[in-house]
Every structure is written in structure tokens, then in C-alpha cells.
């Protein structure tokens, strides 16, 4: 069994770390939030006083942090503490450029690096059914695989450094677009006098079918259970979607690719968040779309 440093024990990180403990690994955890650290201590995670301490003597160090700034600052802190040849895997969602810098710093230090952002949300983290999209060398990916197997149901090596983040933002740009499209279709249908249930029966089995309709329907009481049935509590918060839609546009800018619907989805999520809905589930944008009048 391995010793694993786990830094960032928030909504996602804590259940992921707990699954590693349940599989028999020794997990050394650190989070700047002392309440979360105390909660981790109650789950057989060894609590550390700093990120450096969590990295000490670990074969693998996993980061699950809110943004690139936190990832790069933690990486600088832990580098002097990492054992030769150890693996540092970043599962946070960050921009592609920062992910590539993360890999370059690890390579220079003689360490293995993987960027492995996830899909599947908090329930996936708890149930160990996450999908990991990975970037890095074959050797680093192979080293990471036993841990990915424990924390998720599926993992794919998408390419070299930053490829996991590239795949993640392409997927989430599409998700932002399809969720808004789904909201628009239900809003229009309702104004045309259709019952949402009837529209769901059609769209979930016809050419409009997509994940926001079939799996995560934004209309309360329609389709499988989703955040819409729980007063739009996240789930996946609007501000996290806003972050990912922004990262997609940032990446599109660096390669000169125009993504008009992705750019528009970012604008709509920005407006929706500014209306005070940043901490609601991202599917709640249907409520805001319902109220939009044709100008
Ligand atoms: P979160 O805010 O709940 O957890 C992040 C944790 O990092 C917090 O507990 C915070 O205290 C800690 N932290 C911040 N800076 C730190 C530092 N310098 N050192 C140590 N700890 C520090 O966020 P989350 O929902 O767990 O998401 C984590 C990452 O996963 C994000 O990048 C997010 O975009 C991504 N993600 C989240 C979801 C989701 O549904 N929540 C889904 C897929 C991907």
C-alpha cells in the first residue's frame, strides 16, 4: 500500500481521499480550511500542518484545488518535499497553459506529472464513479492508474501535458451550450402551451436527446432525479460552470479558434451568475431563461 499526499479536501477532494483510505492506502491530507482538516482526521486521513508535510515520503501527491493560482502555489511549496521519482497528479480544473507549466516544473525536478481533471461531480467522487481525463507521459499515467482505478470508474489518457485539461474544457463548453439549449427548448415549449413532461418524452427519445435532458433534466418533477428536484442545490454550481466556460474561451483564444456558441454560453452564464445565482446549480439557468422576453 502506498503513502499518498492529498492536498485540497473540499467537496470533491475529501470523498476522493476517503476512497483511497478505504482501499487501504495511507493518506496524508492538508487543506487551508481547518474545519475540513478536522473532518478529514475523523475519516482516518492523517492530518498535516502544511502542504509540504503532506508531500513528505509520499509515492503520489494528489491536488484537488479551486484554481490554477492555488495549484501553482502548492506545487512550488511541495517540490522541495517530494521524494525522487514520485508522482504529482493535479485533478483540479485549471487552464491548459498553467497545466503545461505544472508539467514542465515537475519534469525539471525529475518527478512524474499527470493532469487529470474529472467529470462526475460530488456524487461521482463519493461513489468512486468519476471519469478522469488525463494528460502526461505513458509512464506517469501507468503510475497514476492504480489510484485512478480506486477513485473513479473510467480514465482515459488523452495525450501529453495539458491534454486532460483540454478534454475537460471541450466537454464542459459543450455542456454549457447544451444546458442552455435545453432550457430554451423547455421555456419555448411551455410558452407554446406544452406540458414539460410531454416535451421530455419526445426530446429524450428524439434527435434532441442529450445529457442535460436525459440525465440532468432542469425541469422539476420531470425525468430522472436531478438538482431541479432539490431546489437547484448543486450539483455543479453556476460559478464552477462559469469558470470552465471562461477557461474554454481562454484556450480558444490561444489557438485562434472561434467558438461562437461557447463564447455566447459564457456571456449568458456570466449574466446569470451576476443576477446572484452563482451558488445555484448550473441547470437553474432555465429559470432565468424562462423570464427572457424577445426584444
Ligand atoms: P472546493 O472549493 O470545495 O475545494 C477546494 C479546497 O481547496 C477547499 O477546501 C480549499 O480550502 C482548499 N484550498 C484552497 N487553496 C488551498 C491551498 N493553497 N492549500 C490547501 N488547500 C487549499 O472545490 P471542489 O468542488 O472540491 O472542486 C475542486 C476542483 O474540482 C475545482 O478545480 C473544480 O473546478 C473541480 N471540479 C469540481 C466539480 C464539482 O462538482 N464540485 C466537478 C468537477 C470538477
Which structural category fits the helices and strands?
Answer: alpha/beta
Radius of gyration: 20 Å
Number-wise, the strands total 9
Distance between the termini: 62 Å
* Low-pLDDT segments: none
> What form results from the Cα inertia axes?
elongated
* Major sheet description: 9 strands, mixed
What number is the mean pLDDT? 97
Give the helices and strands, then pairings.
Layout: E1 3-7, H1 13-22, E2 26-30, H2 34-41, E3 46-47, H3 51-55, E4 60-63, H4 68-78, E5 87-90, H5 96-108, E6 112-115, E7 118-119, H6 121-127, E8 130-136, H7 138-151, E9 152-159, H8 163-191, H9 196-203, H10 211-214, H11 238-255, H12 260-277, H13 285-290
Parallel strand pairs: 1-2, 1-4, 2-3, 4-5, 5-6, 8-9
Antiparallel strand pairs: 6-8, 7-8
Helix pairs in contact: 1-6, 8-11, 8-12, 11-12
What does this protein structure show overall?
Strands 1, 2, 3, 4, 5, 6, 7, 8 and 9 form a nine-stranded mixed beta sheet that branches. With 295 residues, the chain is α/β, with parallel strands linked by helices. Helix 8 (163-191) crosses helix 11 (238-255). The chain is elongated. It contains 13 helices and nine strands. 51% of the residues lie in helices and 14% in strands. Bound molecules: nicotinamide-adenine-dinucleotide.
Amino acid at each position: 500500500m502506498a503513502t499518498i499526499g492529498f492536498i485540497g479536501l473540499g467537496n470533491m477532494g475529501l470523498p476522493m481521499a476517503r476512497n483511497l483510505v478505504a482501499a487501504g492506502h495511507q493518506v496524508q491530507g492538508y487543506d487551508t480550511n481547518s474545519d475540513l482538516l478536522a473532518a478529514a482526521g475523523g475519516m482516518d486521513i492523517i492530518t498535516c500542518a502544511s502542504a509540504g508535510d503532506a508531500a513528505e515520503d509520499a509515492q503520489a501527491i494528489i491536488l484537488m484545488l479551486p484554481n490554477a493560482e492555488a495549484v501553482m502555489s502548492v506545487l512550488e511549496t511541495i517540490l522541495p518535499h517530494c521524494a525522487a521519482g514520485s508522482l504529482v497528479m493535479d485533478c483540479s480544473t485549471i487552464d491548459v497553459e498553467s497545466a503545461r507549466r505544472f508539467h514542465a516544473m515537475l519534469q525539471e525536478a525529475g518527478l512524474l506529472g499527470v493532469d487529470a481533471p474529472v467529470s462526475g461531480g460530488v456524487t461521482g467522487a463519493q461513489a468512486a464513479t468519476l471519469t478522469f481525463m488525463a494528460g502526461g507521459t505513458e509512464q506517469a499515467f501507468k503510475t497514476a492508474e492504480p489510484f485512478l482505478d480506486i477513485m473513479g470508474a473510467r480514465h482515459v489518457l488523452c495525450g501529453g501535458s495539458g491534454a486532460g485539461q483540454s478534454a475537460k474544457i471541450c466537454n464542459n463548453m459543450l455542456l454549457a451550450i447544451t444546458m442552455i439549449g435545453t432550457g430554451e427548448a423547455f421555456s419555448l415549449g411551455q410558452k407554446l402551451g406544452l406540458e414539460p413532461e410531454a416535451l421530455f418524452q419526445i426530446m429524450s427519445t428524439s434527435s434532441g436527446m442529450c445529457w442535460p435532458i436525459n440525465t440532468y433534466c432542469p425541469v422539476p418533477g420531470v425525468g430522472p432525479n436531478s438538482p431541479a428536484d432539490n431546489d437547484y442545490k448543486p450539483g455543479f454550481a453556476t460559478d464552477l460552470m462559469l469558470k470552465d466556460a471562461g477557461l474554454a474561451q481562454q484556450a480558444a483564444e490561444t489557438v485562434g479558434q472561434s467558438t461562437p456558441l461557447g463564447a455566447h454560453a459564457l456571456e449568458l452564464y456570466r449574466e446569470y451568475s451576476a443576477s446572484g445565482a452563482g451558488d445555484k446549480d448550473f441547470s437553474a439557468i432555465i429559470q432565468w431563461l424562462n423570464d427572457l422576453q424577445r426584444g
